[in-house]
Amino acid sequence: MNILAIESSCDETAVALYAGDAATGCGRILAEQIASQIETHARFGGVVPEVASREHLAALPPMVDAVMQEADLGWNHIDAIAVTSGPGLMGALLVGTSFARAAACVHGIPVLPVHHMEGHLLAPGLAGQLPAFPFITLLVSGGHTMLVRVDAIGSYSLIGQTLDDAAGECFDKSARLLGLPYPGGPEVARLARDGDASRFPLPRPMLNKDNLDFSFSGLKTAVMYAVRKLGGSEALSDQDRRDMAAAIEEAICDVLVSKALRACRQQRAPRLVIAGGVAANSHLRGLLASRGKGVELFLPELRHCTDNAAMIAYAAFARYGAGAPAPAEWDARPRWPL
Ligand code: KG4
Ligand code: ZN
């Protein structure tokens, strides 16, 4: 089953071609491309929805051609088009879903709408088999921070989530307070390597609450006060920035790791997947490996942690590859619970 997949829910246009074997449940990526709009949005300090839609519109058609050429496949070899139909920016989603619908109509193939978060949840399947069920996924991106229990494909229970900011949002907003460019996560991680986290003791919100929820807005406020105390972001020295970045990264990762491991214990599911853009953070990966004794870790490849179309293809294959029919009626949904 050859699936052409399109992802355009936020600020990355991504296209992938995936060949799945329904008999074995395994498959491989034939070609994939990701075009990031980060530089365009960096000028504005965050994603501008209308700009994102226009960029997707310009990028998508040539990327589809390029991926099909790279895989040396024509439309007559494509069995279905998988597309992210939500959640995300409405205009951005409409570009991908409209393209998918039009191409599917012309070529007489089905469209398989995919939940963006299901793509992230199942991303480890791209590297081979999924973990045995049940497993826990810590989904940490710019818009979401959630702990999900996966009992089967399509059977997901939200067991913990953020009450305010997402972990990636906390990285991005804290970075902004330090005068760093968007997106802040990778910048904070880069500076943190040479920083001393102990210089700025930052709070670990909700760590002592015996539940699986998160809250990151208080941490961001603590960063704001610490920066103010030093005279504002312009007065920070390079070392101040490095130390503060290390303290921010340490605080966010400490909370994420503690709650994720607590989830594995409470749910008696000693298998943990981390997914979403923040899962690219190497300090987070290192902490999980050192503190997660007895828990088997599944870390998707870095390029499949951030937004990509291969994960959308795999989610469609996992859901529909066994012969489940494509939904007859569906729409792009900017808000869509998992
Ligand atoms: O999943 P993603 O690519 O997009 C969505 O939000 O759906 O995640 C982007 C988020 C941003 O907040 C970015 O700052 C964060 O992931 N991020 C990181 C790292 N790389 C990306 N945060 C911390 N460390 C990183 N290395
Ligand atoms: Zn995402």
From TrEMBL:
Which residue intervals define the domain Gcp-like in the entry?
29-314
Q: What class of enzyme is it?
A: transferase
Task: Choose any GO biological process term that the UniProt entry carries and state it.
Answer: tRNA threonylcarbamoyladenosine modification
Its required cofactor(s), as named, are: Fe(2+)
Could you tell me where this protein is found in the cell?
Answer: Cytoplasm
In short, the EC number is: 2.3.1.234
Q: Enumerate the CDD domains for this protein.
A: ASKHA_NBD_TsaD_bac
Reaction(s) catalysed by this chain's protein: L-threonylcarbamoyladenylate + adenosine(37) in tRNA = N(6)-L-threonylcarbamoyladenosine(37) in tRNA + AMP + H(+)
Please list the residues that bind Fe cation.
H116, H120, D307
Acyltransferase as UniProt keyword: yes
- Alphabetical UniProt keywords: Acyltransferase, Cytoplasm, Iron, Metal-binding, Transferase, tRNA processing
Molecular function per GO: iron ion binding; tRNA N(6)-L-threonylcarbamoyladenine synthase activity
Q: Which Gene3D superfamilies match?
A: 3.30.420.40
Q: Which GO terms describe its cellular component?
A: cytoplasm
What's the family?
A: Belongs to the KAE1 / TsaD family.
Describe its function.
Required for the formation of a threonylcarbamoyl group on adenosine at position 37 (t(6)A37) in tRNAs that read codons beginning with adenine. Is involved in the transfer of the threonylcarbamoyl moiety of threonylcarbamoyl-AMP (TC-AMP) to the N6 group of A37, together with TsaE and TsaB. TsaD likely plays a direct catalytic role in this reaction.
Q: What is this protein called?
A: tRNA N6-adenosine threonylcarbamoyltransferase
Q: Which organism is it from?
A: Mariprofundus erugo
